[in-house]
Amino acid sequence: MSHKKLWLILSVLFLLEGTLLPWLVPAAWQSKVQVDPHFVLVIVLFIGLYINRHTALVYGLVFGMLHDFIYHSPMLGPVSFGMGLAGYLAGMLQGRIYSSIVISMVVIGLGNLFYDTAIYGLFRLFRVTHTNLEWVFLHQMLPSMLINLLFALAIYVPVRKLFESLPAKQAEEME
């Protein structure tokens, strides 16, 4: 798998996050919870787990900044910071723990929670939002984490086979 394929996959998921997926959330849920699919983040976390942390950092920073620009973030940088750092932290676990589906889902769940908490913390720090953390956690973070974990579970086997089939030389070139 080359850079081009990975860029293409992430670009398609990035476009789907903002265009098609908001329509798939049932109308009854929209008044009670806010579901934000972060499918690019899931792939960035997989990149950190199965390729390396530096590649995950770069993809997280690039697609996070793109998200800041395109999806009208009130500040430039929080999404980029959160996505890049989450991918980097997931990559720090590569080779240190046994990789199984349970461990991967725990890392992706915690990475997603870290990402949402970092963005909330930065928005709260700079007084962009005044919403209570408890409400945000129950009505935004948990539903989003559930959707992202279901997506990660659905693509786990193909993504793992794809990333593990990379020769060591090609994985080093992706840095």
Could you describe the 3D structure shown?
This protein is mainly alpha-helical and 175 residues long. The longest helix has 32 residues, at 133-164. The chain has a single domain (38-169), classed as Arp2/3 complex 21 kDa subunit ARPC3 (Orthogonal Bundle). The chain starts with a helix and ends with a helix. Helix content is 75%, strand content 0%.
Helix-and-strand structural type: mainly alpha
Q: Tell how many strands the DSSP assignment holds.
A: 0
Instruction: Tell me the series of helices and strands, N- to C-terminal.
Output: HHHHHHHHH
| Separation of the first and last Cα atoms | 13 Å
Helix content: over 70%
- Number of domains as seen in the coordinates: 1
The low-confidence runs, each spanning 5 or more residues with pLDDT under 50, are none
Output mean pLDDT: 87
Shape: globular
Proportion of strand residues = under 5%
Provide the CATH top-level class. Mainly Alpha
What is the CATH architecture assignment?
Orthogonal Bundle
Provide the gyration radius in Å: 16 Å
Membrane topology: Multi-pass membrane protein
Main location: membrane
Family: Belongs to the MreD family.
Pfam families: MreD
